[in-house]
Amino acid sequence: MTSSDPEPGAVERKPVLLVLGDSLAYYGPEGGLPSDDPRIWPNLVAQQMGWDVELVARIGWTSRDAWWALTQDPRVWSAVPRAAAVVFAVGGMDSLPSPLPTALREQLRYIRPPAVRRIVRAGYQWLQPRLAPLGWPVALPPRLSVEYLESARAALAYMRPDLAVVGTLPSVHRSEAYGRIHSGRAAAAAAITEWAARTEVPVVDLAQAVRANIESEDANPDGIHWGWDAHVEVADAMVRTLRRIEEHETDGDTVVTSGGR
């Protein structure tokens, strides 16, 4: 037996799909779900690929949060050595209008006492949709989104040069909380596409995959999270991209995969 041979009785562990995402990765038509729910797209992808999943995501996360998770979360550190692929499933929140500072929203939970916190949060929730039609500023400018994505990609490439990385283009929404405004999407999608082409990172266009669902009555009533059909479409698009990587069919050009069958 060599040092690389598994010990007798050892259980062979499956490869891991590591997803760094926002709430779109684990919300369904009625709200948030546990990370092991078989209906959300990361688990649909893993089931088709024969992999395990490590989903590291929270509501409101941007590309900056994905970078922080990669550098600070020990769950990510333990998943990277076993990962078959890493998906940057962030960017949608980056491109949403955020006339009130993002830092303000993130700090609301720390306000004391609770009565004051509730008043401030109610004020924020009243102002946000009324200021959103300004369309500016966005939660994270495209230039910064790409800087964080590239930092994450480069760090993974340093640790695992063989590791497949997949990016995503922002989803679409019809959320009243954001005034049904998404004027920042085009610039964000263009910046991510340029970065992906330059670094040879395949990307999945979430908007193409989910648009029909988000505009239907089957999506979450909040207008931003998806119904089950969208999760299936995203999973199918992601699997097609991962299969192409496995089969070495990518030729250095950006691979943009829609959700259409």
Describe this protein's structure.
The strands form two sheets. The protein has a six-stranded parallel beta sheet, sandwiched between helices. Strands 2-3 form a two-stranded antiparallel sheet. Helices cover 42% and strands 13% of the residues. The protein starts with 15 loop residues before the first strand and ends with a strand. The model has no long low-confidence stretch (mean pLDDT 89). 42% of the residues are buried. The protein is built from nine helices and eight strands. Helix 7 links the parallel strand 6 and strand 7.
What is the helix fraction of residues, given as a range? 40-55%
Mean residue pLDDT: 89
- Summed up, the helix count is 9
Largest sheet descriptor: 6 strands, parallel
Termini separation: 47 Å
Unreliable sequence segments = none
Q: Beta fraction of the residues?
A: 5-15%
Backbone CA Rg: 19 Å
Give the beta-strand count.
8
What is the general shape?
A: globular
Structural class: alpha/beta
The helix-strand sequence is EEEHEHHEHHHEHEHHE
Strand order of the largest sheet: 4-1-5-6-7-8
